[in-house]
Amino acid sequence: MRYHRIPDETVRRLPIYLRGLMISADQGYEHISSQFLADFVGVPSSQIRKDFSYFGDFGTRGVGYDIGKLVREIKKILRLDAACKSALIGVGDLGSALLAYPGFGAYGLAIVAAFDVDPQRIGQIVNGIRIEDSSRISELDRRGITLAIVAVPWAAAQSTIDRLAEAGIRGILNFAPCRIVAPRRVKVITLDIAMELARLPYYMPAGGSNEQPIAGGSPQQEAS
Amino acid sequence: MRYHRIPDETVRRLPIYLRGLMISADQGYEHISSQFLADFVGVPSSQIRKDFSYFGDFGTRGVGYDIGKLVREIKKILRLDAACKSALIGVGDLGSALLAYPGFGAYGLAIVAAFDVDPQRIGQIVNGIRIEDSSRISELDRRGITLAIVAVPWAAAQSTIDRLAEAGIRGILNFAPCRIVAPRRVKVITLDIAMELARLPYYMPAGGSNEQPIAGGSPQQEAS
DNA sequence: GTCAGTTTGTGAATGTGAACACAAGCACGA
DNA sequence: TCGTGCTTGTGTTCACATTCACAAACTGAC
Question: Are B190 and A224 an interchain contact pair (Cβ–Cβ within 8 Å)?
Fold first, then answer.
């Protein structure tokens, strides 16, 4: 079933599949069935087959999927085939942790520049990256950096993102817990840590409260 | 329209509304219209009205919503009316940043305990919290701690969550990028930072690639 | 009391994603 | 060449979420 729009929810799951497939490849497998991958990543096998069917026929009936081909194809879809360079804006506690975070490499992502406004921090080297003055954000385009991670205080988030948009950045991962407006060409994904934690008590109905458990039981698990 | 099940997507939005309402209250407002809140939090006003209608009639036609009543009600729904105590497991770079994160307080949440396996870290005090040995996780229930934040390496995540489940923890915010299985009574929300970043290049179609822009343009923004 | 201006609450329509069942297709052995 | 066992690909059905349009209800002025 070619020439079909790829649903957003499928795009959201592709990185999950990608990690599972790369781990399987490391373990020496060359083929994998949707059922095996399902057990591994926790997504129903029928869902996996439908997701894969959106961008072509990569499986062989009776055999399974060719892991190498699938990995290459998913990377192409997600545009991870060419390594993506990212910039970090805001090197506070969270920013420093992100600089040290080892998980980006598996996806071919890397933080190659870091910016801050604090003169005390500018010039310091954290995890091999020298912290630069925020004014140099405008050079991002020339340096071939297309992604940005925003870890500044919420009051500075909107102006930071305005400057990133002006500098030609096209994708932003934002940790500031506030509404952001950006030009249509810039995709912003906001990750609000406190908000996720605040959602958690709702699913714990058996507390001492006399509140009715209006909603059903907790549905096991949830990703992102 | 009372006695109606609250949709999951509505629950996901409630913390957003809550923050917007509390900020409005701080600014001295007592009433707010769905349109005003919509502009503030970036959710359509019709969506806001439907969401609020799921748990009772809190608005007054021609006037708007009583902010105080609404804040109390949302807190009750989310079970944030009684302050929730959380434990942090894993005080590495990310864990330390979370200990210092000031954003939890607004929701009445607080990290009141921290655990690690590294003997070098145990006993140290980070942001007023003394790091304890992981073996004391079993005391969590007795200390009235019901939430946990897991920021350990992925290889240790499953065993950590097993122990938390055994200790009576009911809700877990997990930062480890891997599949987790937990008993049905434990709600796990996984927040995979690298995965979110890996999703971003997909929405930047104008790159040098000769790939077809199969999916439409970037739909402005996305929360969490 | 009436009228104009606002704003909520909600039923209906639309859009989107998940679940399911099963036919189609491949490998392998006899 | 045929039959068996396994796995994919997909049409259909169902469940859930969003959008829209509008009647109902409230305020305040005159």
Answer: yes
